[in-house]
Amino acid sequence: MEAALGEFLPLESQHPAALHEAMRYAVLNGGKRIRPLLTLAVCDMFQGDRAAAIIPACSVELIHCYSLIHDDLPFLDNDDFRRGKPTCHKKYGEAIALLAGDGLLALAFQILSRLRDEHKALRIVAELSQAAGTLGMVGGQAMELAQTSEEMDLPTLDAIHIHKTGQLIKASCVAGAVTASASLEEENRIRKFGEYLGFAFQIVDDILDGDGYVRFMSVHEARGKVAEVIQKAEEQISRFKQNEPLLQLVRLILNRGQQEGSS
After folding, report:
1. How far is CA 172 from the centre of its chain?
2. Which of 65, 86, 114, 148 is 20 to 30 A away from residue 49, measured at CA?
């Protein structure tokens, strides 16, 4: 995955060098790559072409990295560090960081044109563009900006989580199913799996951050909610053979919630 991302990204020596350096810095920074791993695991489960699945997997990760650059900016989350390193705007300035995010989003869709099956490419473009747009991440960010901590309630928080985090995780899973030529029934199950997994993923992040869900319930109750949602996710893929890689990713998310935030 790292090698593929490095090949898709512009070289630092290419003009404009500062912009391309910032794009590579934001992507090649040791992320967990959960979303592209989901794309590959779903494709593998349906015995699809892993080499072809690398393309949408990288596309998903580029979209995710673009969103992190923009989220970190001072007028949004105002974060100075990510994964122990200065955020993109702290290292390269706000203007270059903003453009680096824009560049990654454009590149994410550009590389999808390399898929040989045009129909699959168009379907994945539709999935990812919706997940990244106003019905997905951008919409979730707008919902979050519209709320104050005093106004926030649990249904609103759920809606923010589903849009800002869950939609891209769901699309990551669906992209793997589309690449592998899964049937409509199989794809629908993967779509539900992705919805549940994305929701659980964000609750776990809330537990780790001490925010979000744990403002409305105890850490123990939040972990119980994660386990409940994860069980629903597992039920969606229980009938599929070769589902173990997906189940391992599910367990990884659940274990993060159990191991942290116990205080």
Report:
1. 7
2. 65
How many domains would you assign to the chain? 1
Nearest C-alpha neighbor of 175 from the set 202, 194, 159: 194
- Give the torsion sign (CA, 30, 255, 260, 145): positive
As to burial, measured by CB atoms within 10 angstroms (0-12 exposed, 13-18 middle, 19+ buried), residue 11 is: exposed
Looking at per-residue pLDDT, the higher value among 29 and 236 belongs to 236
What confidence score (pLDDT) does residue 256 get?
64
User: DSSP string of 81-131?
Assistant: EETTEE-HHHHH-HHHHHHHHHHHHHHHHHHHTT-S-HHHHHHHHHHHHHH
Q: Give the range of the structural domain holding residue 25, as residue numbers without chain letter.
A: 2-259
- The stretch 203-216 carries a mean pLDDT of 91
Residue type, 110: Q
**Counting Cβ atoms within 10 Å, is residue 106 exposed (0-12), middle (13-18) or buried (19+)?**
exposed
Please provide the size of the chain in residues.
Answer: 263
DSSP designation for 164: I
The model's confidence at residue 151, banded by pLDDT at 50, 70 and 90, is confident
Say if pTM beats, i.e. exceeds, 0.85.
Answer: yes
Q: pLDDT for 41-87, tens place per residue?
A: 999 999 999 999 999 999 999 999 999 999 999 988 778 898 889 99
